[in-house]
Amino acid sequence: MQIVGTYGARYENAIDLSALRGAHQPQYAARTEIAVDGNTAAAIPFLQWWRAPIMAGFPITPSTKWLEHLAAVVGAGKCGKAKRVKLLEAEHAAADYLVGMAGSCRELIAGTATSSVGLDHMTETVRSLGASGLGNVMIVNVCRATANYPLCIEGDPSDHFAHRDDGFIQVMCRGKQQIYDTILQLPAVGMNPRVLTPTMPGFFGIKDSHRSGKLVVEPDEAVNSFLDEALASTEPTPPGLLDGDTSMGSCVTSAYFQGFKVGQKARLQAALDVIPRVAGLFEKRFGRRGIELFEQFAMEDAEVALVCLGPDAGTAVQQLPRMRDELKARVGLIVLRVLTPFPSVALARALRKVNAVGVVQHAYHHGRGHIALDLADALAESGRLLPTESFFCGLGGADVSPSTWREMARLTVSCAMRGKPSRRWHLLHEGHELSEEN
Amino acid sequence: MARALPTFKSHAQRDDAFLEGHTLCPGCTEAVAFHEIGRATDNGRKTLVALGTFCGEVSTLLYPNVISWGRGKREPAEVEKSVGIIHNVFESAPTVAEAMSDTARVLADVGAWKGPQPNVISVSGDGGALSIGLRSLLHSIHRRARVTVVVYINEVFANTGFQYSPTSLPFADSSTLPHGGAAEPIDHIGLAIVAGAGYVAQATTGYAPFFAECVEEALAAEGTSVIFVPAPCITGWKFEEGLTAELGRLGSQTGLFPCFRKKRGEPGQIKHVPEKAKRPGVEQFLVGQQRFEHVVRAVDGKPQIVPGRESDVAALQSYADRNVERLEKLALFP
What we know:
The structure holds two protein chains of two kinds. By secondary structure, chain A is of the alpha/beta class. Chain A has two domains: 30-286, 3-Layer(aba) Sandwich (Rossmann fold); 294-433, 3-Layer(aba) Sandwich (Rossmann fold), CATH 3.40.50. Helix content of chain A is 40%, strand content 20%. Chain A is built from 14 helices and 19 strands. Chain A has helices spanning 17-23, 38-48, 64-75, 91-104, 116-121, 123-132, 158-162, 176-190, 220-231, 254-286, 313-327, 344-350, 370-381, 402-418, and strands at residues 2-4, 8-10, 32-36, 54-57, 84-87, 110-114, 137-143, 169-172, 199-204, 213-217, 244-248, 294-297, 304-308, 331-336, 338-340, 356-361, 388-392, 426-429, 432-433. In chain A, the strands form five sheets. Chain A has a seven-stranded mixed β-sheet, with helices on both faces. In chain A, helix 2 crosses helix 3 (64-75) and helix 11 (313-327) crosses helix 14 (402-418). By secondary structure, chain B is α/β, with parallel strands linked by helices. Chain B starts with 7 loop residues before the first helix and ends with a helix. The chains are: A alpha/beta, B alpha/beta. Strand 11 of chain A pairs parallel with strand 2 (83-87) of chain B, so a sheet runs across the interface.
């Protein structure tokens, strides 16, 4: 028995994790190339981790396939006694279940997937989880418009943004490989003793969840030893409820509440330090880029930049040479990955040489947009006032066409020349404005 | 094979897992019940507790006060004596407990948890379990979760200031329904039985040996066990201190909250409810509680119905009588 800080006692040998590891039935013995949709790519890590014995879920479009895939594999007896799929009666219950599972043993990974109003239904518990210190919780959010007036089942990250203050580490993905790789890495971030913050990888519904593509799956042995290596720490793991004499979820008065919040904020910010280290280990082991705070394309000499996220960025990357040629301007592109904590310092540094920025957003916002606000704050913190065009496009999963990307680039170049935006915000589709003058 | 249950004496001599430091009202039913649960769980098994949000949570897990949960003055040397306790949100204690139970079970199935299956207990108020948390309660029962669910029924949302709850007795004054309404309480025992609970009891701490027996039986039962604990609330019901046990007994004797227990597949048992002709009238229970002062008052030390409120008392008496009849039928539920 060992006393761990203020957490209480931990009974070191109460849970024999080597037995759980030994009972794991590997799904992939060697590196394998397959064609899968995004939901399946997000499900495979949970089958490969020996640390994930129970996967909880409740179906909601477009994330349902994540649960169905796990249920099919586990139901076919391919995981032995070491894995269960837990079907709950609602998303709120799924989130509650993660609390109990993750709290019981902090070395396990407790995960689910959801979307849109499903994530909204979890809100009460998700916001508690964000402050809980249970970094071994992962909620895969398959982005879908929220809420239901009108109901739309296609991908837009308004659900993700509605929950950006819940306390989770939010990382946006595009493409099957990035989904799989990101999920493989995130427990190493969230469960780091300095971080202890739950994680929420996200990817766009339909555009990424339902379209198939190539995926390189790594062998289970490498997946698990990478995580073990990344989690290796000299700091003792706090006790769980099962292997500890401990309590979680106290109630406090205002005299102490702020102290808890200071700790929560420090843990979340520490993720910005831990992510590059984990990404480095990932790249060294697997040869692919680990989680970047954001991706950069043609930013070396850029004089204007577009800042975006999600799968439509692929069109923008493809259009960059044409933009530069037609506009006679050096246009660069930044694709955001880590949304919370927002990488303000790094982003301001990446934009230090551009004269204007166009922020491309796919989620409804009452003003100039979630990212526009965060970016303005990041630039202000760095002492810069950068002309910024705010763009909305692809709402509800609508296509973002090449002509829309080129129009956004044109307006951003004009913004640089004018020194201020042409409108408060734009809503574009097929290269045309959909909104009245504003 | 069924576990042999301890005698009440040996139960009372065990190490309690509920200690000093809580801020519950003096004489509160919840504290008395916590002690019984604390002793029952000293059975060679690890103890896991999930709390909903209710008086029993805010008064026992208040940082930086001493956490009231734990066995002994120091962390115990053996994990079997230890307590892991968690509060999540208002309404989901059964689901959180179910997750803890499942986790222990899957670890045991692969040999990673070598001890016996832990005692896993969820504790909520009636608001947390029967109002906002009914979904969590019924679905954990429906899934046959291997947990013991304890629900304190004080008939109001006490933690927020004694508002009307779906468990409120008719005509009980509350801060959101002055002088109460005519609606009868939700049939919590019926819901638990029909949902498939392995063991259902209603037990007052006023009958301590029966209460202790029910907790022991619940912990030993297969499937989901549910114990409803009628909880006379000194502050909410507004009665003299020292009467909680007596009101608990009267609640049973009048038929308003009969002591009851039933194992799934076996006939149930109603306890501490006299034959109808010998039962005290409901006014015996109502008198002395300010929440019913507009209905029944003490005159010369005896309950007297407030003029004009005769039909209300008759309705309450009818409910109490039908309550016993309903339980007699539920006792025979297959």
